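C-alpha cells for chain A. Residues wanted.
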C-alpha cells in the first residue's frame, strides 16, 4: 500500500490563501467532495475540527496532518494543501503550517488509516522533501515528488 495511491490529484491545492485553520480544512474537504471522494462535507469537516480541538495535528515543523473517520468517505482518501502564507494550526512547535495533508476514511478502515498515517510520517522525514514540496510548481510535480520519495523509501537508504 502506498500513500500516494490514496492522494486525490484533484484535491491537491497549491498556494491556498486562507485566513485560518478551519478555512483550510473546509477548502480541503470541499476539494475532496468536488473530486467525488466524499459524499458530503458537513460531517468530515466537523470531525476534523473536533480532532484539532482535542490536539493539534501540526506534528512536524511547517506540516499538519489533520485526519478523521467519516462515513462520507467510501475508502481512505487524502487531500493536500500548500498554503500561501502559512496557517496557525496551534502546532506543537508554535510555527505556521505550509503543508496540510488531510486524511479521511470510513470508520471500518481504521487499520488502513493508521498505516497511511505511519507511511505519511515516514515520508515527511525524507531529507529535502518538505523543501521540494514547498517549491513544486504544479500539483502534478508535487505528486511526482511524493511518489519518488515513496520509491526511495521502498528501496531503503541509499549506500
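Reply:
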Amino acid at each position: 500500500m502506498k500513500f500516494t495511491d490514496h492522494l486525490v490529484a484533484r484535491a491537491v491545492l497549491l498556494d491556498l490563501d486562507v485566513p485560518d485553520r478551519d478555512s483550510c480544512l473546509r477548502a480541503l474537504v470541499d476539494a475532496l467532495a468536488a473530486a467525488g471522494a466524499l459524499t458530503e462535507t458537513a460531517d468530515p469537516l466537523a470531525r476534523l475540527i473536533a480532532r484539532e480541538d482535542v490536539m493539534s495535528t501540526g506534528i512536524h515543523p511547517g506540516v499538519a496532518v489533520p485526519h478523521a473517520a467519516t462515513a462520507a468517505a467510501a475508502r481512505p482518501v487524502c487531500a493536500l494543501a500548500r498554503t500561501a502564507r502559512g496557517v496557525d494550526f496551534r502546532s506543537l512547535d508554535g510555527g505556521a503550517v505550509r503543508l496540510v495533508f488531510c486524511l479521511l476514511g470510513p470508520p471500518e478502515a481504521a487499520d488502513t488509516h493508521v498505516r497511511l498515517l505511519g507511511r505519511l510520517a515516514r515520508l515527511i522525514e525524507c531529507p529535502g522533501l518538505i523543501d521540494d514540496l514547498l517549491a513544486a510548481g504544479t500539483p502534478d510535480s508535487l505528486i511526482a515528488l511524493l511518489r519518488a520519495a515513496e520509491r526511495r523509501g521502498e528501496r531503503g537508504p541509499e549506500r
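Residues 122 and 153 are 8 Å apart (CA to CA). Residues 3-155 form a domain with the Mannitol-specific EII; Chain A fold (CATH 3.40.930.10).
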